[in-house]
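Readers outside the structure-tokenisation community will struggle with the description of the input data as it stands. I therefore recommend that a typical entry be quoted early in the introduction. An entry of this sort, consisting of the sequence and the corresponding backbone structure tokens, reads as follows:
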Amino acid sequence: MQTPESGAERTPAWGVASALRPLPHAGELLAGKYVVARTLGHGGISVVYEAHHVRTGRPFALKWLLPRFAEDPVASARLAREAEVACAIGHPSVVDIYDIATHRDHPFLVMERLSGETLADRLARGPLAFRASLALLLPVLEALDEAHALTIVHRDLKPENLYLTRPRRSVEERIKILDFGVSKYGADADELRLTSSQAVIGTHYYMAPEQKADPTREDGRADIYAIGGVLFEALTGRPPFTGETLPELVYRITREPAPRLRQLVPSAAPALEELVASCLAKDPEERPRTMAELAGWLCDVAERPLADWMCARQDTASMLRGELELLVARARRPDGEGEGDAAAAADTL
């Protein structure tokens, strides 16, 4: 993917002193509770660490503002917004946030520790089939439908913010929505964006035209546009729009029609092509009205009702759990004939 140039990044005046603060290091105790283990990743304004509770040993992910943003009121507001919104939704497909803590006046989030990969990591290995994409995205649509009912708009949906994980002792892969830091909650129309373009450059590929032209028009249909972009990339291996520079990318998103799905995936069903095109419509009125409506239409394209699809996923998980129980039972046979099954059961678990 080609990334538009963002220009040189400058440290704001409020970030000069705080930029001298050291980042946490392995073994350091934060807020008297969390022992830092290792770095998990970096974002535009933060770094995420794996840490363990000093008494229980339970693993957590700690989202720590980079030193130059620690005293920035906008960055701090983004951190608080992320926790507030995630807790308000409370859906299994939204990452759990347990606390906002401070260490030496430095704020950080305490989140569930996820193991797996982002959807961006998965797509880096190649595009997905429609049914595989649908299986991953249906729980996301359900969570976003609940968020929209609470007047919460995510506004930064992209493959990097969708995390594929398999909980311990679970045979079913799950997906989690990350980073509600720039979300819109209720009538609050503040953008809560950093002045540094470096921090938001990755979001432009999936932002709806109205987010750039007239942010006051934003509602849940901006998220539907982003889901359309994510689905397009899942099926084709590339986002709908690219550009050598940011102005070129913005022009294409706001002015040019989205490419047709079947131009890149000729085997795609015409109905799927039309549905993706409707999600990527420039006019929000031409998109599906709700995430629930979009989910229903996607299942219609798959020629299976939504209820049957969800039941099938539950039945598959139950079947796999049953097979695991059988493997374990055979592995415990006293005659030793189940030793091969023991190894298989261990590998599966």
